[in-house]
Write a structure and sequence with these properties.
This protein is α/β, with parallel strands linked by helices and 532 residues long. Helix content is 39%, strand content 21%. It is built from 17 helices and 16 strands. The strands form 4 sheets. The protein has an 8-stranded parallel barrel, surrounded by 9 helices. Strands 11-12-13 form a 3-stranded antiparallel sheet, with helices on one face. A 3-stranded antiparallel sheet has the order 14-15-16. A hairpin with a 2-residue loop joins β12 and β13. α6 crosses α7, α8 runs parallel beside α9 and α14 crosses α15. The longest helix is centred in the C-terminal third of the chain and has 27 residues.
């Protein structure tokens, strides 16, 4: 079984994506995580570009890596400048990174119109730079920027640039589809030609502007490429880079190549979500292999078949990449879906109850509810149908007051609204009346409700709201339209979603909030009963 090297450039190329940024600590944490999984090369950035990247290379020397090699990225020497005088090359060597990744021009258009150099001078710039870093004892990888565009325009010169890097001692030559405009058939054809013309290993680095970066990378591997460069979750400039997660899964699970360390494919979902959290980005539910919807089933026919044999609608066992199967509840659901979602209640033989649950789901979805991202609200619905729901508290009243005080202004001089919520609830024979300020009506309501309930339910302190979404259900009704609010909550062990629908956004938020708290209380009660 041959190994395909994976080269991660999340910290540099990934951070060039819109809205993506990593702190120094983020970069170090991610380096450790990628090393644990068996990524072969970890690109730390360009040490001359900013203080953060410079500090990374100083700090990463104290990180004990077991597998990965850290790479410093930079450009070939400037024209008319000897390598020993070039500030970029000096910074690369001063980084003490064991691997230097040099990017050079391959496309004659860029050489002449961007660098303003002659074609011969560019060849010398490539050769001199690679030889200089090689002589310093570093492993040198050469990134042939815009290779595919350059090859299409002037294949003879594009190959000359690769030969210059090869003869100077580059360990691997990486063919870059920098503009992301090449399609898989062209990638395969060109890689095949290049492989026959060179003797050193080849790599592939694709951007995703045509939504085929992963396909291009796999096509290149099929033609003999032994290194794939990309980012975790495919983040990066413009439309992003090759997503290393499906690349690893496809190579390891579908094509039989050795990638990562043994057992690491089962941690791909964990890695995906870890990087999204570091970058403060929302998950992509439809992301292949690792997305929350990758193994989610909604239609009744699908869920019926899945219950009999998962391979009927799943191309792999989700556990192979650390993901899980999800059965979604909606108005499209059939008996099989309800069976799968209510297995813990052992009602599979009660057709009357099953029909009642399904009827409730369809009725509520007709009113604007959706339970796909609100499984906690569905669980409470089932409890109510089965007569197992006993509310932990009773809402008596709530009030939200929002005032824009002219004396209370933000740094830009705008009047800053002040929000206060008051809540009155009954818990058994206790009447609780509390108030709380907040950064908005939902935050204020949440604060007031927690004040009221926490004395009786102290474990509510473990719960936090992590996401809040609002959707208009019937937009043609204008400002009188119903809105659907979905709240995502978590504690130390679980994440759950709840939903509320109303013409009043505050009421819809309150309904979703109440469900979230009720679910937490029921969950803790059931966990305690199980332990006992």
């Amino acid at each position: 079984m041959s190994r395909i090297q994976l080269y991660d450039t999340t910290r540099r190329d990934g951070s060039q994506g819109e809205g993506v940024t990593f702190s120094l600590q983020d970069k170090l944490l991610l380096t450790r995580r990628l090393d644990e999984l068996g990524i072969d090369y970890i690109e730390g950035g360009y040490p001359l570009s900013n203080p953060k990247d410079f500090e990374y290379f100083q700090a990463v020397r104290d990180v004990p890596l077991k597998h990965a090699k850290v790479c410093a990225f930079g450009m070939t020497r400037r024209k008319n400048t000897p390598p020993e005088k070039d500030t970029c090359l000096k910074a690369l060597l001063d980084s003490h990174a064991p691997v230097i990744t040099l990017v050079g021009k391959t496309w004659d258009l860029h050489v002449q119109e961007v660098l303003g150099a002659s074609l011969d001078e560019n060849l010398k710039m490539i050769g001199d730079s690679v030889a200089y870093c090689k002589a310093a004892g570093r492993e040198v990888l050469y990134d042939a920027e815009h290779f595919f565009d350059g090859f299409k325009r002037n294949s003879e010169y594009a190959l000359q640039t690769l030969h210059a890097a090869q003869e100077a001692g580059a360990a691997t030559l990486i063919l870059c589809d920098t503009n992301g405009g090449t399609l898989p058939d062209d990638v395969a054809r060109i890689v095949e030609q290049v492989r026959r013309a060179l003797r050193v290993p080849l790599g592939i680095h694709c951007h995703n502007d045509c939504e085929v970066a992963v396909a291009n990378s796999l096509a290149a591997v099929a033609r003999g490429v032994t290194q794939v460069q990309g980012t975790i979750n495919g983040i990066g400039e413009r439309c992003g880079n090759t997503d290393l997660l499906p690349v690893a899964a496809n190579l390891g699970l579908k094509l039989g190549y050795e990638v990562l360390l043994p057992g690491s494919l089962a941690r791909l979902t964990e890695l995906s979500r870890y990087v999204y959290e570091l970058a403060n980005m929302n998950f992509r539910n439809g992301q292949a292999y690792v997305g929350a919807s990758a193994f989610a089933h909604k239609g009744g026919m699908h869920t019926h078949a899945i219950a009999k044999n998962p391979i009927t609608y799943e191309h792999i066992d989700p556990a192979q990449v650390g993901n899980e199967r999800r059965i979604l509840v909606s108005e499209l659901s059939g008996r099989a879906t309800i069976l799968a979602k209510t297995a813990k209640y052992a009602i599979q033989h009660d057709n009357t109850v099953m029909a009642k649950v399904l009827g409730q789901v369809q009725d509520q979805e007709h009113e604007g509810y959706e339970f796909e991202a609100a499984e906690a609200s569905f669980d409470l619905l089932v409890k109510k149908v089965l007569g197992l729901y006993q509310p932990k508290f009773e809402r008596l009243s709530y009030r939200v007051n929002i005032e824009a005080d002219a004396l209370n202004r933000d740094p830009k001089g705008h009047a800053s609204p002040v929000t206060e919520a008051t809540v009155k609830v009954r818990i058994g024979d206790r009447l609780m009346h509390t108030a709380s300020d907040g950064d908005g009506p939902v935050n204020a309501l949440d604060g007031a409700l927690r004040k009221a309930l926490s004395p009786c339910f102290p474990r509510l302190q473990e719960m936090q709201l992590v996401d809040y979404k609002v959707r208009v259900v019937n937009s043609r009704a204008g400002t009188a339209a119903k809105v659907r609010v979905v709240i995502e909550s978590r504690d130390g062990s679980d994440v759950w979603g709840t939903v509320g629908v109303s013409e009043n956004i505050i009421e819809a938020s309150w309904l979703a909030l109440i469900d979230s708290i009720e679910y937490k209380l029921f969950k803790d009660e059931e966990a305690k009963a199980t332990i006992v």
